[in-house]
User: What shape does this take?
Amino acid sequence: MSQIHAQDHILLDSVDALLRESKYADAIHLFEVNSISTIHKPATHAALSKAYFYLGQNKESQSLYSSLLQRKDVATMDRFRWTQDYILVAAETGNFKLCDSLLTIIQSILPTVKDSTTLARYWNTVGIIYIQSSQPFLANEALNKAEHYIHRDLDIKLQSWIVSNRGIVYKMMGDYASAIEKYRMALHQDSLRNDKADMAADYQNLSLIFLEMELYPESRYCFEKALEYIRMTGDVGSEGLILNNMAHLFNNHGQIKSALQCLRSSLVITEKAGDKIATADGYYELAGTYRTLSLYDSAMYFWNMAYDIYFDSGALDPMFYTLLAKFQMTVKLKQFEHGDQLLAKAYNLLSQLPSKRYTPSYYDARALYCESINQTDSADAYYVLALQSIDSIYQEQSSAFVYDASIPNNRTRFYKNYIRFLFDQKKYHDALRYQLLLNSIPTHKIKPHSIPFFESGISFFQADTVMHVLLNTESELQYYRLFISPRIKDHLLQVKTLLRQPSANQHSLSQHLAVLSDWINPAIIDYVQSHKELVIVPDGLLCNFPFEMLSIERRYLTETHTIQYSNALNFGDEFAVKSERTIPSITILARSEYSSWTSLPDLPDVDNEIDRIKSIIPYNQIYYQATEKNYYDIINTDTSQVLHLIGHGMNTTDDVRKSGIVLGRDQTHHDGYLTCDEIEKQQLHGQSVILSACETSVSTKIAQKNIPAIPEAFLNSGASLVLSTLWKINDRDAVNFVDQLYRHWIIEKSIPAALQKTKRDFIVQNTLPFYWASWVIWK
Assistant: This one.
C-alpha cells in the first residue's frame, strides 16, 4: 500500500469525490480508464463496490466486496457493515449460498455489537434476504426484530426502509391494504426528511401494487410522482427503472405507443448511465411489447440482448424467465429445435436457483413443448408434474399462514393450461375434474365415471384471450371456444357501465348487447333452445354480467328461461330444483336507521317493503331495526322457507371476507356488520336467502378467480339459493320488485320461476333494464 504511485492517489481521491456525489458511472469510468490496480482507502473500496452494484454490474461488485473483506486494515464494525452490503448484492443476484456464508461472518461479530441502529440494520438485511428468496413469513420475523431495535435509537431513514420492506412482505402475502398502509407510512417519513430519492421509491412501490390490483389511474399517478421526484435527484438509473415500469403499465392497459415511448426514453437514460440491469429490464419489456405487435424478430432480438446482460451480471432469476419467454416465442414460430435448446438451458439453471418455486414453470413449459410436437402422453405427464409441484408449494405456503401471492396466481395459470390441453384432447371429464380441483372442491365429491354436475349448465372459463364454453346435458359434454377480442372486451365493459346508470343511453346499450349476443349465440343457441332452466358458471370478464339480457330471436333470454348462477361446478342433487310446495313462510330482518351510527344514509322505504310482504305472505316473523345479534339468535332455529334481509350491502375490495350486510349494533359486543366470515360460522337449514341490499352479488377478483363473496358465504352456511343484486338499487324500486316477486312466488312455489316472471312483467311494461336486470340468483 505504501508504494502506490502518487498519480494513483490523486486519481483515487477524484474517484472518491465522485462517489460521494453519487456520480457512480463517472467514478467507475475514471477508475477503469486509468487501470487503478490498488485502492488505498477501505472506504473508497467499499463505495466502489456499491457503485458497481447500483449500476447493475453485479459480478464486478461481488469481486470488489470479496477483496475488501480480505483486507487486514478493515475495522471490525466496518467489516460488519460492509459484509451486510455484500449480502444485499448476493441476494439481488439470487446467490443465497453466498448469503449464508456471509451471514456466518456477521454472526461471529454480532455478540460484540451493542449499537441498536446497527442491530436494526442487520435484521433488516436478513429480512431482505428472505424477501429475495420468497420467504415472507421469515422476512416478517426478521423485520419485527429490526423494528424492535430501531425504536430504541431513532434513525428515521432506516426506520422508513424497514417500514417499506414490511410493505413488500405484505404485498407478497397478498395483503394489499396493509402493504399500501406501510408504503404510505414510509412516504410520510421520507417527506419529513425531504428525501427525494426515497420518496420516489415509495411512490414506485405504491404504483406497482396499484398496477397489480389493476387500478390503472392510481398506478399512473404514482409513477408520475416517482418520476418527478427522481428527476430532482439526477439519479438517471432509477429514472430508467421507473420508465420501464411505466411501460409495463401502458402495455397492460393496451397503450402500446405510450409504452414504446417510455421504453425508448428509458434505454437512452440507462445506457448512458451504464446501469446494465436496468438496461436489460428495458430490453425485456421492449421485447414483450414487440411480441404484442407481432414483431417477433424484434422481440427475439431484444430478449437476446437482455439475456446476455443478465448472464454477464450473474442475475439468475431474470435469466430463467427470459429463457422461458424466448421459448414461448419459438413455440409460436414453430422453431421447436431452438425451443428444446432453451428449455435445456432453463433446466440447467434450476440447480443454481434458490427456491423450488421455479420448477413448476419449467414443467409447464416442457409440457407445452411436448404438446407442440404432438407428444401428447409426455405433455400430459409434464402438466401433471407442474400441478403436483405447484400444489406442494401452495400447501407449504398455506400451512405457514402466509404465502407469496404469486403462488396461487401461478397455480391457477398452470391448472388452466392443463384444462385447455385436456379440452383439446377431448378429455372433457378429466378437464372438468381439474376445474373442480382448481376451485378447491373436495375430491370425494367427484364421481369417477359419470359427472353430471347439473342437468342443464353453461360454464364460461376465461384463459387469456379465449373464453372456453362448456355445455352440459345428461348425456354428453359439448365444448366451444370464443375469442375475446379487444372489441368484445370493450363491449362487455360498456354494458356493465351503462347498466348501472338509470339515465344511460338505451340505444347505445342495445347496440352493445346485440354485438355480445352475436358473439355468444353461435356457441349456445342450439343448447338454450332445448333447455329452459339454465345454470351459468361465469369466469373472467363475464362475471358481474347479467346473461338474462342476451338476445335470442329478439327476446331477452330471461323471457324464455329461468337462469341461476354458480361460482363452482357442483353435482347432482345439489342443483336439483327443490320442491317448495308447502305453506309459504318468511323471516324478515330489516334495518332502516343508519345515519346515527354510520356514514350510510337511512332507508325510508323499509316500512313500505315490510308492509307489502306482510300483505302477501301472512306466515311471517319480522325483526324491525334488526341487529347483528338478532341474526345470531334466530338463525339456528329458523325454519321458514325464505330469509329476507333488508339493509345496506357492504363490499370491501381489500379483504372480501369483510364484505357483508350492515345490520344494527346493540349493547352487546357485536359491531353491527354481518361479514362473510361471520355468516359462514352460522348454520342455515336450506332457506332461500333474499338480499334486498345494494351490490350484494358483485364478484371480486382473488388469485385470478372471481368470487361473489356475499352469496358464496350464505351458500357455504347452508342456504339453498341466494337472490342478490349486481349494482346499487333505490330502496323504493326494491319495494316494487320484491312485491312482484312474492306475488309470483305464492303461485309458482319456486324463487327462480318467480324471478323470471317478475322480470318478464317489467319487460312487458317497458321498464329500463337498470330496474330489473340487477337481481340474480346464485346456487
Summary: Confidence is low (pLDDT under 50) at residues 399-403, 441-455, 569-581. The radius of gyration is 30 Å. DSSP finds 30 helices and 18 strands in the chain. Residues 580-778 form a domain with the Rossmann fold fold (CATH 3.40.50.1460).
